[in-house]
Structures are given as structure tokens and as C-alpha cells.
Amino acid sequence: MVAPLAALLVATGVPAAAAVPTTLPTSLPAQAPPPSGDTEDVEPAALPAAGATPAQVEEERLTTPSPSPDSGGARQATSPDPLKLVAVTWTGPAPQLVEMRSRLVTGLFGPWTRVDPVDTERDGKRSASTGTEPVWVDDSREVQVRATTDGQPVTQRVALTSIDPGTSSNDARIAAAAVTPGGATGSPSSPAVVTRAQWGADERLMTWKPEYTPTVRAVTVHHTAGTNAYTAAESAAIVRGIYTYHARTQGWGDIGYNVLVDRFGTVFEGRSGGLARSVIAAHAGGFNRETFGIGMMGDFTSVAPPAATLEATAQLAAYKLGGLYRDPAANVTLTSTGGGTSRYPAGRAVSLPTVFAHRDVGATECPGNTGVRSMPTIRSRTTALVGNLASYPIRQKWLALRSVLAEPSVVESPTARSARVTRFSGVNGAVYWSSATGAWAVYGTIGVRYDALGAAGSVLGLPRTDEKATPDGRGRYNQFQAGSIYFSPSTGAWPVRGPILTRWGQLGYERSSLGYPKGDQRAVTGGQRQDFERGYLRLNTATGVVTVNS
Questions:
Q1: How far is CA 115 from CA 136, 148, 409, in A?
Q2: What SS3 class is residue 261?
């Protein structure tokens, strides 16, 4: 079955040496952990795991407030305890306009602020919005809400949900994370990230398993709304509150954003499943696939995002886009899945900047007017951090084998032996690079075997060639620093190394009387043995002599 597919690939412009047997897996397993030696290039913050108290969710009683010139149509929640994080919820049709304000420390109510509906959409399971974005009101004990449709009050149809996110042992420890650009070789590094365990995610709220898309093509920038005056010690609580609202109140089973950035530049891991991987989140209805959602924590309607927030956002965008070889200065075409608050119906192809604002695809004000005005700054900084994509050696190999490897799926990351690796969505593909060996692809059944052995951390070391056709035309092989893996449809893929490989080569490799290997080396009395199709080789470890048994 190898030859027909090889001919097809040659006909479509792929060299015969890149042909893939039809027996091979067609994609990277959705939740496969990285092989031994591979790391996901997200540096965790220097914090222990947090011990957190459970969040508390309540529906507040709404009453008619004391009359005032600007309280018409409003209802008010008054609590003896701080309300912390609040959101307006409803059943039935969503109001056209929802506004909220809270009593400030000055004793006065703040200005009325529009609050957008959340993008309540999980791909393939669409539903109408049932609530607004959550708003952090900190220690305020009084919140007023009002809602209208066609200019008429409908506040009687809404409720106010409050979430006390509790406390964690890390809240007082969390400060702005250092934001440092990546090295000159390979993709930019991520800034240090406060992991879910470190900010105190209650994983019992998780009801959806992580879902993956073949790749990420663009970054979506959001703001979370609410106060801009929170402290660094409150940031983790805000994240826990948003997580509880999204996972429990909205029924998403997880937080909607892939990652969040506070006003100090601290980065918080959002959606579970791995920041290096192409996780489908729930942050931009209709455009959750192939996008990476960054939530800037604050309301940037009229206040500009702080410089630290913009820098960390650009660092994250550069890490994700550079590591997947996307040009931050280019445009990308994405296809809407519709539903939610999407501006575009299902099936509509939309051209967007590779780094775009949420309002570009959704019926929302997010990320606020000043947030939108900051988008050119984010794009230009991201582009500068990514640098010259043509200089990325793994990218060059990917472009040469794109029809086989498909799209980059896991961000370029460090691996064993001072090397780097990128994983791809097609035929279990990966490309490894080091300054000593260059960039070479491993994929298909050979790739599965290489991963099982420990990939770059295995005894084989790094690849020294792409996959090649064997001279006899029956199989495929890759050469590595300390051996080779040979594959045939009848024997599978097995490593051959050391003196056994040397002796097999002297005999003529697969064209010898032994044929292909059909198992790995195994210990026997006094040495090692490896079985082949028509015999075996035995290494005497005391003498170094390899005997042929056929």
C-alpha cells in the first residue's frame, strides 16, 4: 500500500521520500502528553500550589432603590457582605441593553456602565446568552442594575448573581510576572505564567474535557470589564471568580479565556488543556476554533490598558503565533461557526488581522474603545518579538513537508539534548532541530515508535534525516544520532542501534537474508538479541561480537 500513496504525493508536488504509508495515524492524539524529554515552553511562576477556599455563588435579592435623578428603571442589591464579583442573568430573550453601577468608597454610586452579554457558546452546542460578563465590584455592598429592550425597562426580568471567589494561600504572594523576550533562535518564550494550581482553580467545577483544534491561526484580545483599581493580591481572586461564573453559573465547565493578564503584567493560565496546545476555548462565539483568547483584566472603555498589560499580552501573542509560525502583521481567513453573539453566520469566511479585537467578530464592545485603540501597539510589539519567521529552521522544514505534516499543533518548545521541537496535526508529525543536527521530521508509525521510546530523550537521540524510502521499496526509515528506526507494513516500526545495527548494515540492511527488524533489542544471557523477519542477531556484550542466526 506504500507505492500508490507515494505516487499520489509525488503527483501533488511532495517528494517520494516524504510519502506516508496508508496504515499510519492521521493526526496527533488530542490529549497525548508530550514524550519524555519534551517540555511545553510555558514557564510557571515561582509559586507553590495554592490552597483555596471554595467559591460561593448566590442570587441577590433586588429591590427598588431610593429615588434619584438617574435611577429610573433600576433595581438594587444590598448585602451585609462585600459582593465581590457580580453578573446580571436572565431567562428568555436577552435585554438589548444592560447597565450596572456600584457604590464607591466615597459613598456615591459610580457611573452607569454598559455590560455585554457573555459569548455563551461551546462549539457544536450553541445556546442563547443567559447573562452578562462578570464585573468585579470588590468590597461594594450595593449594586444597581437596569435593563431595557426597545427603550422600555425590562429590569423585572433580570437577576443579579454574586460570586465570592474565596481566598487562597497564594493571593498575597502573586505580583507582576517578569516579561522577557525569547532568545534569538526559535520562537519567543512565554512570560512566566501563574498556573491553575497556583491561582487556586477548583478542578471539581470542570465538567468539559479539554477539546483541541488542529492549529491556532490568530489571537483574540478581550477585556474582562469591571474595576481597574484592583490590587495585585486581588488578581487571583478575580480569576477564580470569573472561572466559577463561566464554569458553574454559565455551565461552560471551564473558564472561557485561554489566558488572562492583570494590570501589573501577571499572566494567569485560563482554559485547561495546555497553553502550548491548540485548545478550543469559549471566548469568541463563532470563532473559538483556531484562535487563542487573551483576557486583559479591567474595563478599557475609556481608560487605556496599562503598559504592563500590553507588554504581557504581546509576549503571549508572540509566544503563540511565533511558536506556530504565524505572521502577526498579516491577515488570516477564519470561518464562523455562527451562534452565540457572533457577528457572522455559520459558514461565513471572514478576513481578520492575525491579532484582532473581540468586537471584530462579536456583537460586543469588548475590549473597549481604548482597548481597540491599543491594538496597533499590541500588533507591532508582537511582530517585533516574533522577528523574522524566515529564520526559524523548523518552520523551513515544515513548509517543505506541509502537505504531509499539515499544520503546527503544539508551540515550538525546548526538548532534550538542547534541541527544540514542534508537533503537527498530520500523521503524528514532529520536527526536531538542534544546532548540531539541523531540522528533521519524524512522523507516522516511526514517529509513534520514537515517542514511545522517549523521543529526543531516548537512547536514539535526535533525528539526522527525514523519513526515507528503503532501497528495497518495501519500507521506510529514519536515521538518528545513535541508531535508526525501520518500518515495513508487515513488521511495524522498530529501532536498530549499536553493534547490532553495524552488523546488520554489513549484511545489507533490509536487503540482507534477515530482512526487517520485528522487535526491539532485548536482554538475553550474556548479551542482547534482536529478532528480524528471517532470523536474529545476538550481541555478546563481553566480547562485542555479533553473531548471525538465520
A1: 12, 12, 35
A2: strand
